[in-house]
Design goal:
The chain is an alpha+beta fold and 724 residues long. It has a domain of 151 residues: Glutamine synthetase, N-terminal domain (Ubiquitin-like (UB roll)). Helix content is 51%, strand content 12%. It contains 25 helices and 17 strands. Strands 9, 10, 11, 12, 13, 14, 15, 16 and 17 form a nine-stranded mixed sheet that branches. Strands 1, 2, 5, 6, 7 and 8 form a six-stranded mixed sheet that branches. A two-stranded antiparallel ribbon has the order 3-4. α12 runs parallel beside α18. The two termini are 21 Å apart. The structure holds adenosine-5'-diphosphate and magnesium ion. The site of magnesium ion has 3 residues, from β11.
Length: 724
């Protein structure tokens, strides 16, 4: 093993930059060239058909066979012009990132070789569903699942090695109609928020026809040298290190953003960004992160469904291009203990068909009442459904990140910023409501300063899991690996639920002749009173907040099994069923898949930790101890003493034994856990096994400090994090 480590280190010094030539043209000239976008639609389809398809893409609607055939024909011609041979229905199964099965356009028709693509093949496919997890929704003997085209996310051409494939974004549903993927519920949630938000908008402005949720995804990641990565079985098998002593230099010196980016990394960035831009992913921002070896990419925000697809595609592109540059990209939430983890901040807002951002304060008092309505509704939604939001970001990996090193804690709270907090307090507390003088209602509320409020981005709190950042909310607790459909589904449904209640209340009052402003402000006040314990402006990382949150009755759910319990609660079932997102059976099935996934992940970690300790670390330590013993024996022959070496040999022995003992205990605990029938109980047992891995780690990391560096089998943190 040590051989592999030193080979990797030797290779590193000979590394040559991968060749890549950036297009000699502005980004706008090639942006989206691999996407069947509006421009291509108009070029490859009859004007009528293109118009119909555009309208379906923007506002939804049914597609008939004739149109589907026309679209398929156009897609085929367009794709063939790029040398594409295959097409695939591209979807997000419940486990893993994306899935696809490739078919070719080519077929033999009465002995004639032709290229064919029919509307029916575009609209629906039947992949073998049996190998995807369904949580018992679909037993294998009737393993029928369908993928169905999602025309709101455009088709694109994906090129890997020699293959050129037309990818058609789809949803994946069971033969019985239940969703088997992440996209179907998200689309339903986006529809729900559209209806609820439009209804509330229409209280103020009848012109508003629809509202879309916007999402901007900041993606954090680590890069490690690929050869070093291959010499770390833990990274290969579980995406994170289970052992590794912290380096002499951690992130103390790099605690600033925007440091200069190493050349090899920068080349990688330019290449994946170029490919992403061709695929229509509007990547804009790149920078170093605080931790060594950590970086971030952020595209411009888009409609939420498209943003989610683009994030999944982007991760895929990054992974592939990283390999070309001899890197391994780590999306894991916590690849290195003691070093910052990676998140996927979800910047979210609501935007009307007229382009108005509902979470942006404006210069006009009247508009600011709309802003306040959506702001307070979001606060209320986070308060009422914080446990579901927590559950929506739960994973074995994110458990290691939340609440540690520069990551928000598992306590969900909302940050507003000073100005807005003062403003909200005024709204809640001022007493009289006098509408007689028209606009004076704002004065009486002490919110006469409405026009000046905010748009002050300097007021940031990077410690908050859910922060208002001037014209959007930033859900920062979302982990870097996960697919953001899950938090986006929960957030949008939660907010929609609150908006519906608000609309009911206000509409009833309006019917009684109450003035609109009065009705709205009264409702907002009540909502604020109910939910203000979720507001927190201070340091979310501090000890004080843990205590304060407990006093406020906010939950602090540390682990995934505990968080997932909430997904199956009566409250969750009621919410999702009421809005037609998940049936009870679907919710149960999903939770079961997530619970199983937790168990599988920790199981792999435990196996790898056991294997590395037993077969790599302990033999190395014993060998080294043996050398020390020989050395001590030699000294003794010369009647010389060496206290420190003697001490070291003994120390080694103690850690070796402890490692062995604890590994044995972990093996036993795993055997017992595996006997448990109930998935949740099993997951709980695996929670305990995780802490046993940590126990073993303590000794392994001590051994790393004691054993001769020449013999140590695993690339060390300093090598993984600092060498490029
Ligand atoms: P920071 O790191 O300072 O939080 P970034 O520039 O890295 O900010 O990312 C901010 C993200 O928020 C970008 O993806 C941006 O497009 C997105 N964003 C901006 N406005 C909105 C909005 N109205 N709705 C959703 N996302 C938005
Ligand atoms: Mg950022």
């Amino acid at each position: 093993m040590a051989k592999q480590r030193f080979h990797a280190l030797a290779m590193l010094s000979q590394h040559q930059l991968a060749p890549f030539k950036r297009p000699d043209a502005p980004i706008s000239s090639y942006f989206g060239s691999l996407v069947f976008d509006k421009k291509n639609m108009r070029q490859w389809m009859a004007a009528d058909d293109a118009g119909q398809l555009e309208s379906i893409m923007e506002r939804g609607g049914k597609m008939d066979h004739t149109l589907a055939d026309a679209v398929a024909q156009a897609l085929k011609s367009w794709a063939l012009s790029y040398g594409v041979t295959h097409y695939t229905h591209w979807f997000h199964p419940l486990r893993g990132t994306t899935a696809e099965k490739h078919d070719t356009f080519f077929e033999l028709k009465q002995g004639q070789a032709i290229e064919q693509f029919k509307g029916s093949a575009l609209v629906q496919q039947e992949p073998d569903a049996s190998s995807f997890p369904s949580g018992g929704l679909r037993s294998t003997f009737e393993a029928r699942g369908y993928t169905a085209w999602d025309p709101t996310s455009p088709a694109f051409i994906y090129e890997t090695a020699l293959a050129k494939t037309l990818c058609i974004p789809t949803v994946f549903v069971a033969y019985t109609g239940e969703a088997l993927d992440h996209k179907a519920p998200l689309l339903k949630a986006l529809d729900t928020i559209n209806r609820a938000a439009t209804r509330v908008c229409q209280i103020f402005d009848k012109q508003v026809k629809y509202v879309t949720a916007s999402l901007g995804v900041e993606q954090e990641y680590f890069l490690v040298d690929r050869n070093l990565y291959l010499a770390r079985p833990d990274l290969v098998m579980c995406g994170r290190t289970v052992f590794g002593h912290s380096p002499a230099r951690g992130q103390q010196l790099s605690d600033h953003y925007f440091g200069s980016i190493p050349r090899r990394v920068s080349n990688f960035m330019v290449e994946f960004e170029t490919e992403a831009q061709r695929l229509g992913i509007p990547v804009r921002t790149r920078h170093n992160e605080v931790a060594p070896g950590q970086f971030e990419v952020a595209p411009q925000f888009e409609e939420a469904n498209l943003a989610v697809d683009h994030n999944m595609l982007l991760m895929d592109v990054m992974e592939r291009i990283a390999e070309k540059h001899q890197f391994k990209i780590l999306f894991h939430e916590k690849p290195f203990k003691g070093i910052n983890g990676s998140g996927k901040h979800n910047n979210w807002s609501l935007i009307t068909d007229g382009g108005k951002n509902l979470l942006s304060p404006s210069g006009k008092p009247k508009d600011n009442l709309v802003f306040l309505t959506f702001l307070v509704s979001t606060i209320k939604a986070v308060y009422a459904y914080s446990d579901l939001l927590r559950a929506s970001i739960a994973s074995a990996a994110n458990d290691l990140r939340l609440g540690a090193h520069e990551a928000p804690p598992a306590i969900i709270s909302v940050f507003l910023g000073q100005q807005l907090t003062r403003f909200i307090e005024a709204l809640e507390n001022s007493k009289s409501l006098n509408l007689e003088k028209g606009d004076n209602v704002y004065l009486k509320l002490g919110i006469s300063k409405l026009p000046e409020i905010l748009l002050d981005n300097t007021d940031r709190n990077r410690t908050s899991p859910f922060a208002f950042t001037g014209n959007k909310f930033e859900f920062r607790a979302v982990g870097s690996t996960g697919i953001c459909s899950s938090p986006m589904t929960v957030l949008n449904v939660a907010v929609a639920d609150v908006l519906d209640q608000l609309a009911n209340e206000v509409e009833a009052k309006l019917a009684q002749g109450v003035k609109r402003e009065v009705a709205v402000i009264e409702a907002l006040r009540r909502m604020l009173k109910e939910s203000k314990s979720i507001l927190f402006e201070g340091d979310n990382y501090g000890e004080a907040w843990l205590k304060e949150a407990q006093k406020r009755g906010l939950s602090n759910v540390q682990t995934t099994p505990e968080a997932l319990k909430q997904m199956n609660s009566a409250k969750a079932k009621d919410l999702f069923e009421r809005h037609g997102i998940f049936s009870r059976a679907e919710l149960e099935a999903r939770t079961q898949i997530l619970v199983e996934e937790y168990v599988l992940k920790v199981q792999i970690e435990a196996r790898i930790a056991g294997d590395l300790a037993q077969n790599h670390v302990i033999p190395t330590a014993i060998k080294y101890q043996h050398q020390l013993v020989q050395h001590l024996k030699g000294l003794k022959e010369l009647e010389l003493d060496d206290e420190t070496t003697f001490e070291a040999a003994r120390n080694l022995g103690e850690h070796i034994q402890a490692c062995q003992r604890k590994n044995k205990a972990m093996l036993q605990a795993r055997k017992e856990a595996n006997q448990l029938e109930d998935p949740l109980e099993k997951a709980k047992a695996y929670e305990g096994i995780r802490s046993m891995i940590e126990d073993i780690r303590y000794h392994v990391d001590k051994l790393e400090l004691l054993v001769d560096d020449e013999d140590w089998p695993l690339p060390k943190y300093r090598e993984l994090l600092f060498l490029r």
